[in-house]
């Protein structure tokens, strides 16, 4: 009997020392609602920030090349209380540009903030899949794909409809850190007359905290192939980085 008691006690000790099971994933609806609210705030607040944009310059020509004219750095500054912005070329292929005049661009307020985020959300079916680690922090990974018969109203929503992939979300901040997406349909530009990007093209977007807890996009990568001007083979390797964010009063 003493031996049995010792064995039972040992078993209880082993059970007590055994690691607890994995933490349950967060309740999907409130978690994703918080993420959506943060994304909408980011979209709205972005118009208060000036920044620099480094991008491979698109060059669509009869030989089917896209993104072959080097690298530009553009200074972007909001004006008129965020109703418009200026874009000024300040660097090309690592060399300063001093004689480029700024161009003015109106901001399409009807496709900003909550409108865009809600439209994209209405297009996508998002499911919480697992917990991961990214940059030393806990991240919730969600998968997404387009809902059947989705009817988007914005350009962003129409683009989202053609992709599926995974979203890494900072669990504590409820902020999207990274999106990895793959085109599930061919993408057409200019009604397919200018260019068509084939199914399987990939896009990666990254976001980081910029100012007082506000997260903004810092890079996008696009890779794929297709056809330009109906017949020419097209290879895309396109990158944009956003940096040097500063708040403009």
Structure described in brief:
By secondary structure, the protein is of the alpha+beta class. The protein has one domain. It contains four helices and 15 strands.
* Total domain modules: 1
Overall pLDDT: 80
Total beta-strand segments = 15
Question: Into which percentage range does the β-strand content fall?
Answer: over 45%
Structural class: alpha+beta
Judging from the principal axes of the Cα atoms, what is the shape?
A: globular
**Between the first and last Cα atoms, what is the distance in angstroms?**
80 Å
The succession of helices and strands, N to C, reads HHEEEEEEHEEHEEEEEEE
What composes the largest sheet? Answer: 15 strands, mixed
Extract low-pLDDT stretches: 1-18, 60-68
Task: Estimate the helix proportion, in percent.
Answer: 10-25%
Question: What can you tell me about this protein's structure?
Answer:
- The protein has 249 residues and is of the alpha+beta class.
- 20% of the residues lie in helices and 48% in strands.
- It has four helices and 15 strands.
- It has helices at residues 2-17, 28-45, 113-123, 155-160; strands at residues 49-56, 65-66, 71-79, 84-92, 95-96, 103-106, 124-134, 137-146, 163-170, 175-183, 187-189, 195-197, 202-211, 214-228, 232-247.
- The chain has a 15-stranded mixed β-sheet that branches.
- The longest helix is centred in the first third of the chain and has 18 residues, at 28-45.
